Amino acid sequence: MSSYLFRNGHVIDPVTGVDGQRDLLIVDGVIDCIREHIGASADETFDLDGAVIAPGFCDMHVHFREPGEEHKETLATGALAAAAGGFTAVACMPNTIPPLDTAEAVLSIRQKSDRFPVDIHPIGAITKGREGRELAPIAELHAAGAVAFSDDGTCLQNAKLLRIALDYASVVDAPVIQHAEDAALSEGGAMNEGYMSTVLGLPGIPRIAEDGIVLRDMAVVEYVDGTYHLAHVSTASAVDAVRAAKVKGLRVTCEAAPHHFTLTDEAVRGYDTSTKVKPPLRTRDDVVAVKEAFRDGVIDAIATDHAPHAAFEKEVEYVYAPFGIIGLETAVGLAVTELVEQRYLTLWELVERFSVNPRRILRLPEIRIEEGMQANLTFFHPSREWSVDVRQFRSRSRNSPFHGMTLRGKPLGIVNKDQLVWLAE
Q1: Backbone phi, then psi, for 28, in 5-degree steps?
Q2: How many beta carbons lie within 10 A of that of residue 173, not counting itself?
Q3: Residue closest to 195 by CA, chosen among 206, 183, 186
Q4: Which string of b and e fits 253-269 if b means at least 16 CB within 10 Å?
Q5: Which one-letter DSSP state was computed for residue 260?
Q6: Strands 18-27, 30-35: pairing kind
Q7: Closest CA to 355 of 397, 403, 302
Q8: Side-chain-side CA neighbours of residue 399 (13 Å)
Q9: Which among 6, 55, 168, 286 would be 20 to 30 A from 208, CA to CA?
Q10: Which domains does the chain have, with CATH numbers?
Q11: What are the catalytic residues?
């Protein structure tokens, strides 16, 4: 028997419609009681001081590097980082070595992660070897536990294969997730093409590398009536294309990463390779467009694109460094600071983007904060300030451009699978 009592919390549950102050008692991993005041005692009691109790957050886009590159991140260290960031679930991309393009590979991820307090949902590859030539066994991957299909890290360039993938994925009711990038246009680029790339003397990646693929994909989706999700949208034109697709009633969703609604290509000035990411950091106009797309509901989810790299890989000249930013442990703080504090989202809408919508997109069971339900909860304090210190991260890697930044919105802990992870002050 284990029991936890959380006092003075602010429960926000968009599924049940609850939004108010509550005490919450968990006994043996089950929500035993939710009341304005609970007089019972428990093994451990926490005074939340107005912190939010939300359905467990789900990051639908992470790279945990296992198998093949465990020196960057493992399933275990990735789960620790996710829990520290306030996530009870993640979906891991298939660009591992070897890639997640077989049922055995997908099953291995699920089996290895069973013991973690964070649910790890594998995303299967669209094509064998992620080579963009031959379709992977979609039905087998789904039966093994793949929740979606993507060649993320590379774009599915072949429109015919995209059409077939959308057809096959629709049979198992799973989304196809696209990394929109015209490889011919982006080849050799290191940052956003424009004024800053010229000033810094770095080869650029033009916005049309993303925009052109998104426009093409919208036409394919409309033709086959597929279910499509756009990963890490970063340009104003790509946002507009998704908005137009939704007006048409197409089954299209999209996500944005915190670095794309926080930083611009100005951040590259110091040649800090932690700012090198794909798609690249864009202009101020793009950042504003992404934020506005949260406000009007075009962007469905916040996803980190957590992409760890070892220090020795990033400590090279900018053009030679790998693309990627870690994001699990800063996501909540950046989202509160950049979206809630600046009135692009309410706290209710923030919970939708972090919890409800990602699960709906991936067809995962919804989380309800109700008596008798298994506790799957995220706790965060929306007004608590904290300073980012990558030396304290649980992730195995440290490639974050946010070190030293002061953020508002602090993850406090999670409860999932009858396990409590609580962060020390």
Answers
A1: 50, 45
A2: 9
A3: 206
A4: bbbbbbbbbbbbbebbe
A5: G
A6: antiparallel
A7: 302
A8: 27
A9: 168
A10: 3-53+371-422 (2.30.40.10), 56-361 (3.20.20.140)
A11: 305
Identify whether the C-beta of residue 279 lies closer than 8 Å to the C-beta of residue 232.
yes
Task: Tell me which residue has tokens 């198992």.
Answer: 172
Q: Which residue matches tokens 């077939």?
A: 164
What string of DSSP letters covers 295-350?
HTT---EE---B----HHHHSS-GGGSPP-B--TTTHHHHHIIIIITTTSS-HHHH
pLDDT (tens digit, 0 to 9) for every residue of the chain, 425 residues total?
Answer: 799 999 999 999 999 999 999 999 999 999 999 999 999 999 999 999 999 999 999 999 999 999 999 999 999 999 999 999 999 999 999 999 999 999 999 999 999 999 999 999 999 999 999 999 999 999 999 999 999 999 999 999 999 999 999 999 999 999 999 999 999 999 999 999 999 999 999 999 999 999 999 999 999 999 999 999 999 999 999 999 999 999 999 999 999 999 999 999 999 999 999 999 999 999 999 999 999 999 999 999 999 999 999 999 999 999 999 999 999 999 999 999 999 999 999 999 999 999 999 999 999 999 999 999 999 999 999 999 999 999 999 999 999 999 999 999 999 999 999 999 999 66
Q: For helices 208-224 and 159-171, what crossing angle results, to 10°?
A: 50
Please give the Cα distance from 139 to 135 (Å, whole number).
11
Rounded-to-integer distance, Cα 117 and Cα 89, Å: 9
* Ramachandran angles phi, psi of 120, nearest 5°: -115, 115
Give, to the nearest 10 degrees, the angle between helix 236-247 and helix 208-224.
10
Q: Tell me whether strands 204-205 and 191-192 are parallel, antiparallel or unpaired.
A: parallel
What whole-number distance in Å separates Cα of residue 320 and Cα of residue 180? 22
* 294 in Cβ contact with 282 (< 8 Å): no
Q: How, if at all, do strands 57-62 and 30-35 pair? A: unpaired
At 406, is the secondary structure helix, strand, or coil? strand
Helix, strand or coil for residue 25? strand
Tokens 């033709």 sit on residue: 223
CA distance 268 to 301: 26
d(CA 323, CA 309): 9
Of 390, 161, 382, nearest to 272 (Cα)?
390
Whole-angstrom Cα distance, residue 23 to residue 34?
Answer: 6
Pairing label, strands 57-62, 44-47:
unpaired
pLDDT score for 414: 98
